[in-house]
Amino acid sequence: MPGKLELIVGPMRSNKTAELLRRIETRREYARQYVMLLKPSADTKAAAGLVESRNRNGCGKMEAVEFPSHDPWPVLPVIAETEQRIGKRVECVAIDEGQFVHDLFLFTKRLLDSGHDVMVSGLELDFRGMPFGEMLDLSWLVRTYAGNLTELVAYCSCGAKALYPQRLIDSKPAHYSSSVIMAGDNYEPRCERHFVLPGRPH
Ligand SMILES: [Zn+2]
Fold first, then answer.
1. How far apart are the C-alpha atoms of 6 and 29, rounded to whole Å?
2. Contact 62, 24 (CB under 8 A)
3. Cα(94) to centroid of ligand 1, in Å?
4. Active site residues
5. Is the pTM of this model over 0.90?
6. Which pLDDT tens digit goes with each residue over 41-52?
7. Got the DSSP string for the chain?
8. What tens digit of pLDDT does each residue of 107-123 get?
């Protein structure tokens, strides 16, 4: 039987990671499931091998299997080895910051097809307000594999719902031509009216 996909989306500071960690704890504690948490190498907000939530009321941090963002496929043998070692299935695979993962659509589909439940959290839009990686494509998998999609909300400082991650460099809005993935960049959630993108072509 194929697995189900739980997709957790929302802009920066909408507590996506805290929500992912909470769901992992629930599965581990009450369903006694083996949940493997994966972390793409492009996620640099916590130390190596750790996923950390910025929300201080949340579950804090959790150990994760780190893999190169450009190639998730070596994780498959790690799952197989883990299943051999623990003598049972890895019931669920959780992926944080899914927008960074190359081949995310096919990789997630492969996990679902081989019977693993999958939970993915991440950003749907990048700092330009354009689709980020393959996150938007995963909604097809949610419909097809009877999973669910949770949209978390963040607010602009004006109080309106924030749709966009506003990238700031030295406290100024980043130019449209800056690179999509940038180490040590800084964001705040902004609404349509307060989202600023110098140099945008359209
Ligand atoms: Zn606003």
1. 18
2. yes
3. 32
4. 97
5. yes
6. 877 777 778 888
7. ----EEEEE-STTS-HHHHHHHHHHHHHHHS---EEEEEETT--SS-TTEEE-S-TTTT-EEE-EEE-TT--TTHHHHHHHHHHHHTS---EEEESSGGG-TTHHHHHHHHHHTT-EEEEEE-SB-TTSSB-TTTTTHHHHHHHTT-EEEE---B-TTSSBP-EEEEEETTEEPPTTS-SS-TT-EEEEE-TTT---TT---
8. 999 999 999 999 999 99
**How far is ligand 1, taken at its centre, from the CA of residue 195, in Å?**
7
- Which tens digits make up the pLDDT trace of 56-93? 665 588 999 999 999 999 999 999 999 999 999 999 99
Best CATH choice for the domain 5-151 from the list 2.40.10.10, 3.40.50.1110, 3.40.50.300, 3.40.190.150: 3.40.50.300
Tell me the CA–centroid distance for residue 162 and ligand 1, in Å.
7
Ligand 1 center–CA 2 separation, angstroms: 42
183 to each of 23, 90, 117, 152, 191, how far by Cα in Å?
Answer: 28, 32, 31, 24, 24
